[in-house]
């Protein structure tokens, strides 16, 4: 009987800590979160779409400061009335007019400045979308880790109860315990089997979700994820808030938008000034160029009311962007404070489990195992202690995963990683 006892205690106290990576499958990806995130950066279709959007804005910025094409006009003069066709060769005079529009000085550079700031804004929006998608990948990855590790724990618990069933069978055969102990163990095994079925279904859903984010078929194999650990310390919330003002992509995007709107306001003020047209027109008489004309033109901005409205629109857009920037800063500040509090709470919960609850639950189960061998406690008490340890281990695992998820939310608000993945 002592062999069963020592074996069972070893199983209970050691197998709960088998690394999650021992449960492996064929995979097209490694088990490393960092590698999965790099894969997502390259393959996720939303990230790719935003990357191409940045390319489009940058291309626009490259041509925004270039003049419009010149125009060419050919006029035929002194065409004989009695034989107007074909014109070529009959006209005594041909004028070739080439004209080029020139915006009022400063307008073209303002257009280029606006386009460049809009491209920079698009770049920050791309970075925001990338961080959003990578945060989603992290969340699903952590859940996938949890379900894999929880499945391992549940299978280990099932093995433990199978050993308890064997012990109960031996004790029943010697008349020390009733047959009900065996039945209780079998019921417990059936309940765990049912939980395993549900968890396997959840695992398939999470695998499909992760594959979808990676732009792969939903049924593609994934290895069990590498170990997700509790990593601390992290920077203080004040430091993170200051960093967010410099790194958060939505704040940066709105700052670039304000610069673009400011250039737009100045451009609207320049609309009160005329644009110019310069032209030259060589004149060909018969077969030689006998003279040439030079011309200067300009538009006359007399409908000032129209330009007043445009300037009012530009000012309103600028003021709107400034107000939105203040709103975004407030929202980011709140998100950092909220996420930081949750991270600190998760940290304390993990420490409580590791320093108090888990050691106590292990000690309680060990004591129950010994007392069951000597007949001091019944089988129901033993099962209850086993359930408590199982629940404690799953809750500790959940706390670790929640901690990493809260850190991911904090990183999303800051705009960069604050711990190594």
Q: Helical proportion? A: 55-70%
Main beta sheet: 4 strands, antiparallel
Strand content: 5-15%
Mean pLDDT: 82
Give me the secondary-structure category. Answer: alpha+beta
Low-confidence stretches: 1-28
Silhouette: elongated
Give the spatial strand order of the biggest sheet.
1-2-3-4
The succession of helices and strands, N to C, reads HHHEEHHHHEEHH
What is the overall number of helices? 9
Number of strand segments: 4
Q: Radius of gyration, rounded? A: 37 Å
What separation lies between the terminal Cα atoms? 47 Å
Write structural notes for this entry:
- With 421 residues, the protein is of the alpha+beta class.
- It is built from nine helices and four strands.
- It has helices at 2-14, 33-43, 45-63, 107-173, 180-213, 237-247, 249-270, 304-373, 379-414; strands spanning 71-77, 93-102, 276-285, 288-298.
- Strand 3 and strand 4 form a beta hairpin.
- Helix 3 runs antiparallel to helix 4 (107-173), helix 4 packs antiparallel against helix 9 (379-414) and helix 7 runs antiparallel to helix 8 (304-373).
- The two termini are 47 Å apart.
- Residues 1-28 have low confidence and may be disordered.
Provide key terms for this protein.
4 strands, 421 residues, elongated, disordered N terminus, alpha+beta
Entry summary:
Helix content is 67%, strand content 9%. By secondary structure, it is an alpha+beta fold.
Topology:
Blueprint: H1 2-14, H2 33-43, H3 45-63, E1 71-77, E2 93-102, H4 107-173, H5 180-213, H6 237-247, H7 249-270, E3 276-285, E4 288-298, H8 304-373, H9 379-414
Antiparallel strand pairs: 1-2, 2-3, 3-4
